[in-house]
Each structure stands twice: as structure tokens, then as C-alpha cells.
Predict the structure.
Amino acid sequence: TLLWNTKHNKNRKGNSKTMKNHIFICFEGVDGSGKTTLAKLLAEDLHAQYYYSPPEILLSIRSQIQRYDLAVRFQYYLLGNFIASEEVKKMVKKTPVVVDRYVYSTLVFHLPMMSKEMSEILLPDHIVHVTASWDTIEHRLSQRANRQKGEELPYLQAVAQQYERLFSGLNNVISIDTTSETPLASLRRIKDRLRR
């Protein structure tokens, strides 16, 4: 399964520099950590294509899918990852790509249901794992007009532990804590790490 294949450079199928010309970066983290803000800023700064996942073609049914059990939701997000992977494969030939949530979110939210089919998904060159203190996350989420059921802190804390577990053995993860800095300061740190 992908969890074990992501001991990263062991199986980056189709991800060699001969297969694509530009960098592919994904942002991961719990809701309210600052992922979307930083992903958009980095995409703008790099003149990259910003890509929100799940793909646009699936967004119209997302709210209906949330009413179903875990197995159906997992298949929905899995399909979204395959579509995103195919779209990113095309984009990355022309421009850098920054993805806001990707296969790693699917894994940590649906870890018990992983399957071997996910091993075909294109993996990013870098993963930007965005975190913040739980007080900061709670404050940010409280500012949202329509806070979702999946944005409750105990659930997000469990998801954060899965991210830590998933990313612990990877050498391409850039961890950014957004608790005490502006988005632009976080962006500078991300860019510094990407230059290394």
C-alpha cells in the first residue's frame, strides 16, 4: 500500500525528473492550520498552478458524499486523488504545481481502509506539513462562518497524530508551524527550505 511505499524515494513511480519538468509540492495538515493560505501564497510566489483537492469535477457531490459511511467517503477521496494525480501529471510538464491536500489527507483520514491501488498515484517532490498550536487552530476555526463537524479539536488532534506517524519516515517533508508568524514569514521559511 502507499503508506509503506511512501518511505518516499523507494517507489516514486513516474516521478523522475525525466518524466516531468517542474516541481510538485503538496500542502497537508489539519483544518485551520494555515495550509490553504500558505499554498496559495507559495503558488503565487512561484508562479505555479494552485490546485485544490478534491478536484473541481467532484466538488458538486461532496456534501452528499459526507452523509455516507467511511467506506463510501474513502472511495470518493480516493477517486479524487486519482483524478488529481492525472491532472497534476499534465500540469507539471508545463508549470510548477502546488496542491492543497492530496493523498496524505486521504490516508490519515481513512487510514484503516487503505488499499494497494493507491501505489499508482504520483507522489510530490516536497510535502509542506502545516501545523499550529491547538489554541491557534481553535481560534481560526471559530472565525469560520460554517464550521464543519470534522473540525472539532479532538478529531483534528487524532488526525494530526496520523500525519505525524505518516510523515515520520519521509525525507521530503517541510514542517511549518504557523502559530507565531505571519503567512508571509511562513512563506519565506518554506522557500528557504525548498532552496536546500
